[in-house]
Amino acid sequence: MDELDFQLASTLFRTPFATLQKVGRSLGVSGTTIKARVAALHGEGVLGGFWAIPAAEAFGCKPTISVFSLHDESGGGILKSSLKRSAGSALSVALNEKTAVWAKVFERDSLAVLTFGRRAELTPRSLVEAFGEPDMVQAQGWPRPGSEAGELSPLDWKIMRGLVRNPRGAPTALAGDAGVTEKTARFRRDRLVDHGWIHIQPVINGARSNGIACFYLAAFGASKGAPPEVASLVPGVAIEGIANPPATIYLGRAPSRAAAVRFEELLHGVPGVKVVGMAFRSDSAWDSERLIGWIDGARPE
């Protein structure tokens, strides 16, 4: 991953629906160059596609993220026996839980799983049986649909279904599936995103990148996330704000893993930053068919 690749990834976070030609113009290169870069990043496993995750509230649920250590309790660096084969094994086991939406494996052998349930901050029993008690449990921090979001209409559900199936699908495809005009499909799509009913993101597996170390960094603030000073210190781009607990998530870059860790250490001394967490994501998976099943009428139990 070089600087152009990183800028491409950052742009896709900010504008997930932009065409490759538009992305290219914003970065001063051709759409053909961007198309080739996207294909290369896919081939290397750095860009794992896109996710479209509906808000848990759409299904009358609460979102919970549970974080597990994949090491044994002795701390000897040995993965738990049932998960020794690969990170993919942990992802597969995690997604066997019927309320799981996505799972992410990070370097340092940790696993995060998002589940939708009737109660907040409650880890499903099947995950505890598979991975042990979680190291951390918290409500997912994405902005929630507010009162201004209104109720989801049958057309909204159709558009949401199309986005889960193809997160970067063209408005023409959404329009055809929903039986509306392209203008209406684009308006409804953007409204769902703006009101927090669905979240679209590229999947960047930073631990696989070469050339530039690509990492995720969370800076937790006292009340409103990370203070502004953090943005000037982190060599990257803010990609997400979290409401609970208040934090800002950055996609960062550094010339090496060691240099990235030094940025984490630097932020510990910034006034207003309570906690800093850094991770190199190595692999991830999500269950789009499960989400489509919920959209079509079933609900997570």
- How many structural domains does the protein architecture include? 4
Share in helix: 25-40%
Structural class: alpha+beta
Question: How many β-strand runs?
Answer: 11
Describe the 3D structure.
The protein is an alpha+beta fold. The chain has 4 domains: 3-44, Arc Repressor Mutant, subunit A; 56-143, Alpha-Beta Plaits; 151-194, Arc Repressor Mutant, subunit A (Orthogonal Bundle); 207-283, 2-Layer Sandwich (Alpha-Beta Plaits), CATH 3.30.70. The chain is 36% helix and 26% strand. The chain contains 11 helices and 11 strands. The chain has helices at 3-14, 20-27, 31-44, 87-95, 125-131, 154-165, 171-178, 182-194, 229-233, 257-267, 288-295, and strands at residues 47-54, 62-69, 100-106, 110-117, 136-139, 198-204, 213-221, 236-242, 247-254, 273-279, 281-286. The strands form 3 sheets. Strands 5-2-4-3-11 form a 5-stranded antiparallel beta sheet. Helix 6 (154-165) packs across helix 8 and helix 6 runs antiparallel to helix 11. The longest helix has 14 residues, at 31-44. The radius of gyration is 19 Å and the shape is globular. It starts with a helix and ends in a 6-residue tail after the last helix. 37% of the residues are buried. The model is unreliable at 74-79 (pLDDT under 50).
Task: Describe the structure in brief.
The chain is an alpha+beta fold.
List keywords for this structure.
globular, alpha+beta, Arc Repressor Mutant, subunit A, 11 strands, five-stranded antiparallel β-sheet, 4 domains, Alpha-Beta Plaits, single chain, 11 helices, 301 residues, four-stranded antiparallel β-sheet
